[in-house]
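Lecture 7 notes: from sequence to structure.
We start with the chain below.
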Amino acid sequence: MVDIAFTSDIEEFKSSNEPKINYSLNKLDDELFFQASPLLFEIGIKEQNLSFFEHNDNKCFYRVGKESQLPFDPFAASFYLMSRYEEYLPHIRDEHDRFLATESIAFQEDFLETPIVNSWINELVLIIENHFKEFQFPKTTFNYQSTIDIDNAYSYKYKGVLRTLGGLGKSIISEHDFKDRIAVLLKGKRDPYDTFDYQNKIHKKFNTKPIYFFLLGDYGLNDKNIPVKNKKFQALIKGISDYYETAIHPSYASNKDVAILTKEINRLQNITHRNTTKSRQHFLKLNLPDTYQNLIDNDILDDYTMGYADKCGFRASICTPYYFYDLDTESPTKLKIHPFAVMEATYQYYEKVSPAIAIEKIATIMQKVKEVQGTFISVWHNESLSDKGVWKGWRNVYEKMLAAALDNN
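Predicted structure tokens for the same chain:
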């Protein structure tokens, strides 16, 4: 740990013999100088005039003068991207009231799949270490974190009488999966979404400890999980919590009702008999700052929602966990944000690519994370590991990703 002090007193700064950095509008002497743009000195939220240019093969903005160590303000640019400043400004939302990846400057300027904030950080580290030879930053290493959402633990089983009969009726009318349903419900065939034994086996093989996010909301149009009172479902959650971290997957309905969120968190805590401090929003519904403030009010410390449904890449342009800063109240918080890089559902439902193409795309993004010694977080679902139907071949995608994460190259 290194003690850091901040001062706005010019004489105090000049008289200090410690390694020092001047982040202001004007250079004072021969100190390490990074010229500031106005953003971090402003109060309130307003449209920003962003003009992009190339620097060391990366897009940059907030250009500054030639006396500065860098031709742009990396602190303001990083803050703009990580705080999700643009999501507080007017923008188009999708049918689920979500900020679209295509609305972001990262997509429009073609750096969505590049963690450019990490690149800027690494460049800053080199500049500081070269200027202050006696000072060395701790070295970082690549990390991988698997995360698995359990939106629906079983496809046919444990749905309750009405939902089971309704599902059978629909399958008869559409002549779709009727035989499979009967085989599961009456003949003991394994439910196609019941991939949990396979998951245990593959995670042991690759020495991977995933985090499991359970949807425990009441039944609704966009929340169709197993009834929370079902004993088999509760036993599944308890069994997984004995070996892996479990977290809440706040329901679609909870995003606009904090009382529902509280109820769902309590449900998971009552099942696992452990405090619930981690979350990821169902449907990735994230409305800033309200969603995060609701989580903070419920003692959630870590959230894994930061990413897009429609595009893979880096929503906040960073692949390192960081703390949420609330622009509305101009205040830091204790909520740590863990940005994810890829989700299999994005490749399947939005980009509609084959498993082979998905393997290539994931490898490309992972390599970029390795190059900046960041953290690569993936989002998967239990049903996508069934290797059946639309998910045929996707077990191989998951296994290839786990193998690549172990490769240090």
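Points to note: The two ends are 29 Å apart (CA to CA). Residues 10-131 form one domain.
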